[in-house]
Amino acid sequence: MTTMRIDRLGKRIFLSLVFLLFLSTVPNAAHAADSKEVLLPTVGDALVDVRSEDYDSLNENLRAYEKAWETTERNKDLEETEKQINNELETALKMSADSSVEHEALYEHIVNLARYTDEYVSAASEESEIDRAGMESLINDLSEIQSVVKDQNFAKARKLNEAFVSNWTALEKPIRETNLQAYGSIETKMSMVRVALNKDPVQVDQAVQSLEKLKVTIQDYLDGKTADSASTINTDSVTLTGLIGLLENVQSDIGREEYNKAATKMEKFIQQWPIVEGKVLTKSQTVYNETETTMTEVLTTLSSSQPDAASASKNIDTMIADLEPFTEQSKYSAWDAFFILFREGLEAILIIATLLAYLRRTDNEEQRVWVWSGLGLGLVLSGGLAIILTMMFAGLQSGTNREIIEGVTGLIAVVMMVTVGAWLHKQSNILAWNQYINQQLQKVMNRGAKWMLALVTFIAIFREGAETIIFYLGMAPSITVSQLLQGMGGALVLLIIIGFLLIKLSVRLPIRPFFLVASVLIYYIAIKFTGVSIHALQITNILPVHQIGSLPIIDFLGFYPTFETIIAQLILLLIVAFQFISKNNRKRQSKTKAAS
């Protein structure tokens, strides 16, 4: 196998890995394929058939779907969706057998069938992950603790509660991922139980009531009941910064000896903590564990008959100090914003300067208007694309959507950076660059179609503009507006100066250093994007988190101490090294051929 083929194979492997990683960000589809192996593929085939108007194959697939649906176990919680599937399937079967069927109407019913099937499979898959028997066992455990509390054997009750917490920890993950409101409500009630059992003295009635509320909350979850209005939270409005502010309010209440108010606010903190805990867990298992323990200790202290204000205040200070480092939302700096625009802009300027120089060298300066026209059109359409994408994503830049957008667009940007970086690496000598540009221009001039100068320029500029927009889209959720504007502003000023020197004063830019520096910059940004994007998907529980506790967070590299982020960045480094080695091998082979 030649070096060139190996290089192409390496790129394909990397793109395949990224594509598979992207598919893993849609967990419902993956779970659905595992739990209902026939329904979704079959209705997918039916969609293909109806689009191509292959009614014989469509009828076959609908019959296969009907057979699979009849053997699918029914779910009492999804009766409405089942009814919709039955209706759409029955209608589609009748219409597909009719030779005079109206295509658009049939297509609409197949689309509806596919949608309801996806809803059913996704919901059934989520529910199948929940260990209902285990959850019911937890309710029985709570009943036992209630009996022990009534017998006033508080030491045994506390031990049984510790066992309950361990059992809950083993079951909580799918609940947290599929129903954050219920998860937060259960966690809050568990904290109330711990508080009640650790009071001195223990108030039997209060402890029994706390246990009963926890039992009811778990049972309500199993019965599919929604959380009560008091516990319903707008998750988009909850931030780590806001919770730290809540802790500061608790501290103020303690200072005024308003312990009941402080305890109420602490309960609110515990209830909202699950919404932001992922941001802490993915960065520090230690801080996460300490916060989980300390918040209950504080509430226990504040709820006692004689609160220890000094102890509660000290614990609050510790929590604030531990959590504050994680409130920094700007994972990207002005330098990152600068590098992206500067690299893309410099490449665009270099293309324009080369085109104009070619026209000047061949006595075709009157054709420059086509180059400037292509430049203007490329900039206008790039700006339009930026506006469209901004409007499309404007409503999604909140809550978990924000993190998902950051993660997915970031990974797409990485794929683009790797392919662009490889191209830059190939052009990193003056001979290769001149050969590339001259080939493109010679084609245009030979055809005599001067307007194609505008087309060549437009394609070059629009490509750079589209890449820049995608890069900034992935960066936007994690950079402040001031940092973004500083970086873009600095890059624009420098680009204007360089453009003036190149185009107006005909100053020569050393091509090899430019491409080498540009390659280094693009690979650095790609490595950082990879880490930050994987981390964003971990925060939303789309990707798993396996902590490496001994390693630090390195923000400027997008380095987070988890196996997932490190492995992804190592794969990228291997691809970069592979590209470098392949290029050197090709260079040696070329020299050998030339010598012979």
Short note summarizing the structure:
With 596 residues, the chain is mainly α. The chain has helices at 3-23, 27-35, 39-52, 55-70, 79-96, 103-129, 132-150, 154-178, 180-198, 204-222, 240-255, 259-281, 285-303, 309-323, 334-361, 368-394, 399-426, 430-447, 451-475, 481-504, 511-539, 563-595.
What does this structure look like?
With about 600 residues, this protein is mostly helical. It folds into 3 domains: about 35-130, Four Helix Bundle (Hemerythrin (Met), subunit A) (Up-down Bundle), CATH 1.20.120; about 130-325, no CATH class; about 335-595, no CATH class. It contains 22 helices and no strands. The chain has helices at about 5-25, 25-35, 40-50, 55-70, 80-95, 105-130, 130-150, 155-180, 180-200, 205-220, 240-255, 260-280, 285-305, 310-325, 335-360, 370-395, 400-425, 430-445, 450-475, 480-505, 510-540, 565-595. It is globular and about 100 Å long. Mean pLDDT is about 75; it is low at about 1-35, about 395-400 and about 425-430.
Sheet having the most strands: none
Computed structural class: mainly alpha
Kindly provide the radius of gyration, computed on alpha-carbon positions and rounded to a whole number of angstroms.
Answer: 31 Å
Series of H and E elements: HHHHHHHHHHHHHHHHHHHHHH
Q: Residue-averaged pLDDT, rounded?
A: 76
Strand content: under 5%
Q: How would the global form be characterised?
A: globular
Task: Classify the helix fraction into a percent range.
Answer: over 70%
Number of domains: 3
Poorly predicted ranges: 1-35, 395-400, 427-431
Strand elements, count: 0
- Our count of helices gives 22
How far the N terminus sits from the C terminus, by CA atoms, comes to 22 Å
